[in-house]
Design a protein that fits this description.
By secondary structure, the protein is an alpha+beta fold. The protein has 22 helices and 13 strands. It starts with a helix and ends in an 18-residue tail after the last helix.
């Protein structure tokens, strides 16, 4: 018997209260002969149920051995509890009809495991699917994530599982729950993110390598060189009319690279560039070197492009145009959001240049750019539900990648800002991997827990924690710090369990309230 439980109770329960008794683990409903008293809509419903049917009620109160159970539409029944009855106030309890014959209706509370099994059978029956292991696992996953187990959702999950057989049902279910399109790209991104391998910073390094490879392959092709020159000029245009300021070569090049590159430029007859190398902007140097009119000897250009100095300049250009500065991060979410728009625009522009000029030598570059675009698009979809940012940051003397997680969905955050949890996952050149858990509670109380890789890093943080504490106190916060070294992988952040599914899965052994729609 397939029941839409919400509609069932809404349509059939009256506001009258019926008295039942729980004995030996069962609840027994006495059938009365007084038509004016017992023929309530609630009793009609109970009489219509057959053995094996289930329904759910909320235990509103237990008083003097009697449980007052409120149904979905507000109707109540009172049940006399026998000794040892496993019912507590505040629970959603599912009951199963054990017997409905003659003048006796007997129902029994269903244990969590039994309850799930009953619901799985009913859900699959309503969806017209057999109780195969795959189908049972699909319903279990939906239940675990608090998702509907109606016919449409189960059937859609089954179709996606067949369409993407290599994807886990957890990945597919989470994408559906977050209303992120279930595509091969998004499945890939979800799985990459879950392993902390989806760093934009790593993808930007791939872009640099593919840039060099493409430029070397195009060193004898003046039209291709001009494409790369136009790309450099365009990415420095920035976003929304905010041009990106270029670094100066003298601040970027190492001493050995500066000497080597100066000599190469002089040998190639480019004395003007060589003489002013250290005072010239990275943008100007790269665009001049990639101009078709600069070189008459393709071999000289190829040698320069392969030099360490040129790679340092190209790396600086990527940092200038596709990474954040500490000041950007300090300015907050608006600056970070603008950064994502800028990098998305740059990727789209570069892809357009490569496609319109049919540069076959840059297929690797096109793939790297496509991966960045997919990464950012996935992040944007994720941010419709919760707050997550990656922040590839360039510092004055080093670089790092930071990932910010805010552990709440945005609807809840809009309604309640008394308690906010966040986590920073940092990958720094010197500090290595670091997880920082932060909880901001009412009264500007901040509790912070550092999880570090080594004892040496623990000592380093201890030595400098007073500076952080002082700065936070100046901003009006009351602080509490804890620090430890991660002993195993279980103590590190789990992207799916600790972020995507935080506060979703019910505690072990808890009761469920289901709406099974045929």
């Amino acid at each position: 018997m397939n029941i839409n439980m919400s509609d069932f109770f809404k349509n059939n329960f009256s506001s009258e209260t019926s008295s039942v008794q729980i004995q030996d683990g069962n609840i027994k409903f006495p059938v009365r002969t007084d038509n004016s008293q017992f023929l309530s809509e609630g009793m009609k419903l109970l009489n219509s149920l057959m053995s094996g049917d289930t329904f759910t009620g909320f235990v509103n109160e237990i008083k003097d051995g009697t449980a007052f159970i409120t149904m979905n539409n507000g109707a109540e029944i009172s049940a006399k509890l026998s000794d040892g009855a496993m019912i507590n106030a505040g629970q959603n309890v599912t009951f199963i009809v054990e017997e409905n014959a003659g003048n006796r209706i007997s129902i029994k509370p269903v244990l969590a495991g039994e309850q799930q099994a009953v619901l799985i059978d009913k859900a699959l029956e309503a969806a017209g699917l057999g109780p195969t292991e795959d189908n049972i696992n699909i319903v279990k996953e939906l239940l675990g994530l608090g998702m509907p187990v109606d016919s449409d959702t189960i059937s859609q999950m089954a179709r996606y599982s067949m369409q993407f057989p290599d994807a886990s049902i957890n990945t597919i279910a989470n994408l559906m729950r977050l209303e992120i399109p279930v595509t091969s790209d998004n499945i890939k991104e979800f799985q990459i993110y879950s392993q902390f391998d989806g760093k934009i910073e790593s993808l930007l390094s791939e872009v640099e390598q593919e840039f060099v490879s493409g430029m070397v392959s195009s060193s004898d092709d003046s039209s291709a060189l001009n494409v790369f020159k136009d790309i450099i000029s365009t990415i420095y245009e920035g976003f929304d009319g905010n041009a990106v300021q270029s670094s100066i070569a003298g601040d970027i090049l190492s001493d050995t690279s500066a000497v080597e590159l100066t000599n190469m430029l002089s040998n190639a007859g480019l004395n003007e560039i060589a003489d002013n190398l250290m005072e010239t902007s990275v943008k100007d140097i790269l665009t001049r070197l990639l101009s078709a009119e600069t070189f008459t000897d393709g071999n000289s250009l190829k040698e320069i492009i392969n030099s360490k100095g040129f790679r340092e300049l190209l790396h600086a250009a990527v940092n200038d145009t596709m990474k954040l500065t500490p000041r950007d991060v300090e300015e907050g979410e608006a600056a970070v959001s603008s950064y994502y728009k800028r990098i998305r625009k740059n990727v789209t522009t570069i892809e357009s240049f490569l496609k319109s000029n049919d540069l076959q030598s840059s297929q690797g570059l096109s793939k790297s750019l496509s991966d960045i675009r997919s990464n950012i698009d996935f992040m944007n979809d994720l941010n419709k539900n919760m707050t997550y940012f990656q922040m590839p940051i360039k510092f004055s003397e080093s670089e790092g990648n930071g990932e910010l997680f805010v552990f709440t969905n945005k609807k809840k955050l809009a309604n309640n800002t008394d308690n906010i949890s966040a986590m920073l996952h940092l990958d720094m050149e010197n500090l290595k991997s670091m997880d920082i858990y932060v909880n901001l509670s009412k009264g500007n109380n901040i509790s912070t827990n550092f999880v570090l890789e080594t004892e040496e890093l623990l000592d380093f943080v201890y030595q400098h924690i007073d500076k952080l504490n002082e700065r936070l106190e100046q901003l009006g916060y009351k602080t509490h710090f804890e620090m430890k070294v991660a002993q195993d992988a279980d103590e590190r952040l789990d992207f799916v369990k600790d972020f995507i599914e935080k506060d979703i899965r019910p505690a072990s052994g808890g009761q469920y309230l289901f709406d099974v729609k045929a």
